[in-house]
Design a protein that fits this description.
By secondary structure, this protein is of the alpha/beta class. The strands form five sheets. An eight-stranded mixed sheet has the order 25-26-27-24-28-29-30-31, covered by helices on one side. Strands 3, 5, 6, 7, 8, 15 and 16 form a seven-stranded mixed sheet that branches. α4 packs across α11 (324-336). The longest helix has 22 residues, at 51-72.
Length: 718
């Protein structure tokens, strides 16, 4: 399908695979999408940059460059900068744009009850309701249309909801008088909504044509914002009191609109910020009148809340009546009653193939257009499953003497580690296919890494006989299920930590691992680092038991982070501490006999998550270890420190950049860059798959490590 992206080379229409809707999502064939001048199409007239801002920007860039050089080295930093300035076709960053569309439902998730195939809908969401032929939309970001509301009108729904929410935040009621400042697309919609609600509306702007248009659309009064007598005029209109509220829809770095709003407001009035404006408020007017200054966040309560937007968890109407979804419904209701004129606000309609022309049109400072629509063909693709796979036309064929890899899940970890390492190890691996729920990410990475195809359906990868190895990098709740499915399909598997989140999942995985002749390994990478190799060589023929301390200054994640979600992430003990435990098991290389632990309990203040633990381990040969994992340390301290004692020798590993050996010569190691074993892990597994060496991380070890962390978490939660 076709989708519009902002790239380093400008606005482009690119073929990508059709997204796959999840259980709580609908798949929509887009008919119209709305482009607004304010949010998406930046005008070619940039505001004057001050000398101080130029100096500050220069300093910021120098600091970024310094950090890049320190972390990546001069040579790689030069290549990255060169790529940023002049990106190749395989390294173009495709940023999806668009957030307000209308269309027809063509597929419904299993848990969707309020939509059916064939419904006409309006949809919202940046990065979701994009300028694309098909979009996958969570249920709280879509509404069903009245029969008399056209697709052209419905494409305004998201933008109209932004205007509507700005008015709600102003806390106005029937008969109040308001000022709408800034008569762009949102401002002109706000004028009409305010009139439909029975408000007295004063519209102001600096553009004469916009002022005239506001009058035609129902404003009671419309003035130039730069009019010298404006304060007096508004004072007279309101009987000397001032307006009840000012809703600022303008977009400017100037502080003038917000300070003008303070002057125009009555005592205890409200100023609502909808647009991006300067906020250097002159205190006197605000203080003397005790004016409320409030922000309006997009289209209403629920915005930026993943539970609401992505997972479909609604707010009870008795507590939050006007959510973003109910705001969308209200705006669409006004459309159905002919209270809102959208036709006047459409300067031009473009076909999706001409999207770049549409953005150029909206950026024309001379024409000063308000908005434009993109239109899409009415053709509905019949075979949605087939269209979820996009073949890379630039794919260069490679020989099958290499291991073909299918990737499932391409989050930050996968993009930062496995994908670039697989590319560097092209003598061993070929990236054959890439699967991700985000169709844009999958398509972009397939092109970047020369994969044969991208897909949003992981079953396509499992059914492909050309895939030898599957690497799983999704969020934690899918790891065990996907690993089982991959082994059942006859694929070797590298599954990132953790391999399972519950004992039930672990037992199910254990059952199939013992039945299949395919190999499974886990992302316990630190045992493959050069530091592990040295430590292992020093203590390989040891006589005494070992004593090991491993401290992880993990840093705090906000409680809203997905890793803390009991369903999706399982917590950091299961999700991350497992591979630190594996490293200790690797060093001691004896059966774990017993363990005990203490943890800092939750207090609802500083300690909000179960990720502060001291774990004591004892092994069959008398070795003991202590693993300290904490999120309450200072971030300036390095993350990891390991101390290993035995045979009157000591090894100290600092943050996987430095190793110092005491009592043994020639073993010190100091690297400029961390090496946690990610690349060597892939090298090792390739040699195992090819039969060149026995597996170094066997299933029994993975099983026991995972079982231990799950048991610990279960005991903490009991």
């Amino acid at each position: 399908m076709k989708q519009v992206f902002r790239t380093q080379q400008g606005i482009q229409v690119i073929d990508v695979s059709i997204p796959q809707n999840g259980e709580t999502e609908i798949l929509v064939k887009v008919i119209r999408s709305m482009i607004s001048t304010g949010t998406e199409a930046k005008t070619s007239k940039s505001e004057k940059t001050t000398l101080s801002s130029k100096v500050q920007m220069h300093k910021t860039n120098l600091l970024k460059l310094k950090k890049l050089v320190l972390s990546e080295g001069v040579s790689k930093s030069y290549k990255l900068l060169k790529l940023k300035v002049n990106p190749s076709s395989n390294d173009v960053t495709m940023a999806p744009i668009g957030y307000s569309v209308s269309g027809i439902v063509v597929s419904v998730g299993k848990k969707i009850q309020n939509f059916k195939v064939g419904d006409r809908v309006a949809c919202a969401g940046s990065g979701l309701a994009s300028h694309a032929e098909y979009v996958s939309i969570p249920k709280n970001l879509a509404i069903i249309l009245h029969d008399n509301v056209s697709f052209d009108q419905a494409a305004f729904t998201t933008i109209g909801s932004i205007a509507l929410q700005g008015l709600r935040r102003a806390n106005v009621t029937f008969g109040d008088t308001i000022v709408v400042t800034g008569l762009g697309l949102i401002g002109l919609l706000a004028v009409q909504i305010a009139k439909a609600w029975g408000l007295n509306v004063i519209a102001i702007d600096i553009d004469g044509e916009r002022i005239s248009l506001a009058e035609k659309l129902g404003a009671d009064y419309a003035f130039n914002a730069n009019l010298t007598e404006l304060d007096s005029i508004v004072n007279n209109i309101t009987g000397g009191f001032g307006v009840d509220a000012v809703v600022i829809c303008a977009a400017t770095k100037s502080d003038a609109p917000v300070n003008q709003a303070m002057r125009l407001c009555r005592r205890k009035g409200t100023v609502t910020i909808v647009g991006a404006v300067g906020m250097n408020v002159e205190r006197d007017q605000m203080y003397l009148k005790e004016i409320d200054l409030v922000m309006s966040t997009s289209y209403g309560p629920g915005r930026y809340d993943e539970q609401y937007e992505l997972r479909g968890v609604d707010y009870p109407i008795g507590y939050v009546k006007w959510t973003e979804n109910r705001n969308m419904m209200e705006f669409e209701r006004l459309l159905s009653q002919d209270k809102i004129n959208t036709e006047t606000l459409i300067n031009k309609t473009f076909k999706i193939d001409d999207a770049s022309l549409a953005f150029k049109f909206l950026s024309d400072g001379n024409l000063k257009p308000i908005g434009a629509l993109l239109e899409y063909s009415d053709y509905v693709i019949k075979d949605l499953i087939a269209e979820r796979t996009l073949f890379n036309s630039n794919y260069t064929k490679v020989t099958h003497s290499k291991i073909n890899v299918g990737i499932i899940g391409t989050g930050g970890f996968m993009q930062g580690n496995h994908l670039p390492n697989l590319k560097d190890l092209e003598e061993l691996y070929t990236i054959h296919a890439i699967c991700d729920k985000n169709h844009v990410t999958a398509s972009n990475l397939a092109k970047k890494y020369n994969a044969v195809y991208s897909t949003t359906d992981y079953n396509i990868i499992l059914e492909d006989a050309n895939n030898d190895l599957i690497i799983i990098g999704t969020r934690h709740d899918l790891h065990a299920k996907l690993a089982i499915d991959c082994l059942a399909a006859g694929k070797h598997v590298l599954v990132e930590k953790p391999v399972a989140m519950t004992l039930t999942e672990l037992e199910a995985l254990d059952e199939i691992v013992k039945k299949t002749d395919k190999l499974l390994t886990a992302g316990f990478n630190r045992r493959y680092s050069p530091f592990a190799v040295i430590a292992n060589s020093v203590f390989k023929n040891r006589v005494s038991p070992l004593m090991v301390t491993y401290r992880i200054n993990a840093g705090a994640y906000p409680l809203s982070h997905w890793i803390h979600d009991p369903v999706e992430g399982g917590g950091r003990i299961i999700g991350e501490a497992c591979h630190f435990l594996d490293f200790i098991n690797f060093l001691i290389d004896k059966p774990l006999k017993d363990y005990s632990f203490s943890n800092i309990p939750l207090d609802g203040k500083i300690i909000q998550a179960n990720d502060n633990i001291s774990l004591n381990l004892s092994y069959s040969d008398g070795s003991v270890a202590n693993l300290v994992y904490t999120s309450v340390g200072n971030k300036l301290l390095d993350k990891e420190r390991i101390e290993i004692f035995g045979d009157y020798k000591t090894i100290v590993i600092d943050n996987f950049t430095d190793l110092t050996a005491y009592g043994v010569k020639g073993k010190d190691l100091h690297l400029k860059k961390m090496d946690k074993g990610f690349k060597q892990e892939l090298v090792d597994f390739a040699n195992v798959i090819k039969g060149k060496k026995p597996i170094s991380l066997n299933w029994d070890s993975i099983y026991m490590t995972t079982k231990t962390t799950i048991e610990i978490m279960n005991k903490i939660l009991d």
